[in-house]
Write a structure and sequence with these properties.
The chain is built from twelve helices and 26 strands. Helix 9 links the parallel strand 12 and strand 13.
């Protein structure tokens, strides 16, 4: 779409009129043009209304990425209903609790599980139906993304479509995307990063290729001529093992979700990959700052449509991408200071004109009177070529109050490092008092429910 500041019509309607034969979605061997996508979304919108859904009603989608999931999201935008994607790896009991807590009465699931407190939707995108068009309002709630950061209980972050639109506009000032481009949907739609890919492609009229779990990332990049790719650190490390040379065709590689492995960044540099690192959060509709990938851990400059302030090393944000609030007891709650700033609870500073993230304020602890920021130590440990993940946490000590310990995940299961080897490696990277006093093996059989490492879950498993 054009770069007008405000949306006055459905973005799908606009793109389908402007470029009807452009490929919108590729899923396995099947593809949809924007014209076909609009027709199927219209059919779904009519079916939602036939089920009795009205403006402001919520629809849960318990599913992995699929074209159906994207179409449901867009049908919700068309009808004024609220799209609520939920990770299908969550236990059924937890999903039931979420449906009840957020007053969600309808759901669509990709399996045969029945959730007793909500009604299942039976929708067929190709079943011809008509729907009564509603006035498009980009400023009202259009989706809920569950976010828990490093903690356990999810919060429900509510966005308007205008939040996503402004986010995509700001992103495009640095990361160009055009209608002939193809972005691999390698992040789940129940994460803000996945939804951001859909919105960027929709507004540019580009193609979304849905990741096929039956193929490797490298195979899909080559087969579908992927031009844009978003990855978190674990995906990047995996891809570089599969086939690093497949990245030669990538126009843009966008990295996020935390610190990126230093050895992986070095490989990208050697391959001349146009890679960017980003700092973002669910509450700001994905990206906040973005810059070229670097070994210093800098996250670039703040993108347009966002503002960022650092006060006493705490990061505050505001702007047109700031979410509408958390859903609590069917009411929106948004805590801002008197000037409209939202406190992220992330710590940061400016270095060489770029943003550097120091870690979460609620992860910091004191050891013998000195502040310990676990993320600083973890980033140092992840510079070791054998280490893929590290989590640092405090253990009670009579003399020092709290001492840093660490759990290490190695890239290969047969790798290991001694305490002395790790201490020696950290000698030139962090102060002596920050070195972990003991290293522990990464917990085996730990269930994963997303792309991000759940700190509290890992720490609880290790200390148990």
């Amino acid at each position: 779409m054009n770069n007008n500041k405000q949306l006055i019509c459905s973005p799908l309607t606009y793109i389908a009129q402007q470029q009807p034969q452009q490929i919108a979605i590729i899923e396995a061997e099947r593809s949809l043009t924007y014209q076909q996508l609009q027709q199927q979304v219209s059919n779904l919108a009519g079916q939602l209304q036939n089920h009795g859904l009205q403006i402001g009603d919520k629809v849960a989608c318990v599913s992995n990425n699929s074209s159906m999931m994207i179409m449901l999201y867009l049908a919700c935008v068309e009808t004024g209903t609220i799209f609520c994607p939920i990770n299908p790896k969550f236990p059924q009991s937890q999903i039931e609790q979420l449906l009840q807590a957020f007053n969600i009465h309808y759901y669509l699931a990709n399996d045969s599980v029945n959730y007793t407190i909500a009604k299942p939707l039976h929708c067929e995108p190709q079943l011809m139906t008509t729907y009564t068009k509603v006035n498009f309002n980009a400023l009202t709630a259009c989706n809920i993304i569950l976010t828990s950061g490093s903690s356990g209980t999810p919060k429900a972050a509510v966005h308007s479509f205008n939040n996503h639109y402004q986010s995509a506009l700001g992103s495009a000032t640095l990361i160009n995307i055009e209608e002939q481009d193809n972005w691999l949907l390698s992040l789940p739609l129940f994460h803000i990063g996945g939804l951001a890919i859909v919105n960027r492609c929709l507004l540019a009229g580009a193609t979304i290729t849905i990741e096929d779990k039956q193929q490797t990332l490298a195979q899909q990049i080559t087969q579908h001529h992927i031009s844009h790719l978003s990855l978190v650190s674990t995906q990047l490390v995996r891809l570089l093992k599969q086939d690093p040379h497949c990245l030669a065709q990538i126009k843009v590689l966008l990295l996020g979700g935390g610190a990126i492995n230093a050895h992986a960044l070095q490989q990208l540099s050697q391959l001349n990959v146009n890679a960017f690192t980003s700092y973002g959060m669910t509450e700001m509709s994905s990206q906040i700052s973005t810059g070229h990938a670097n070994s210093a851990g800098l996250c670039g400059q703040v993108l347009p449509q966002r503002q960022l302030m650092i006060k006493d090393e705490l990061i505050y944000v505001r702007g047109e991408t700031l979410f509408l609030g958390y859903l609590k007891q069917d009411q929106l709650q948004l805590e801002l200071d008197q000037d409209g700033w939202f406190c992220t609870q992330d710590r940061g500073l400016w270095q060489d004109g770029q943003l550097k993230i120091l870690g979460r304020a609620d992860n910091m602890f004191i050891c013998g009177g000195e502040n310990i920021q676990p993320e600083e130590i973890e980033a140092a440990l992840k510079q070791h070529p054998l280490i893929s993940e590290a989590i640092v946490y405090p253990i009670a000590d009579e003399e020092f109050g709290l001492l840093p310990h660490a759990t290490i995940q190695y890239k290969d299961t047969d790798s290991s490092l001694t305490q002395a080897e790790l201490d020696q490696f950290l000698t030139t990277k962090i102060a002596r008092f920050k070195r972990p006093r003991q290293y522990h093996n990464w917990p085996k059989q730990l269930a994963s429910t997303g792309l991000k490492i759940q700190r509290k879950q890992v720490i609880a498993a290790v200390t148990a």
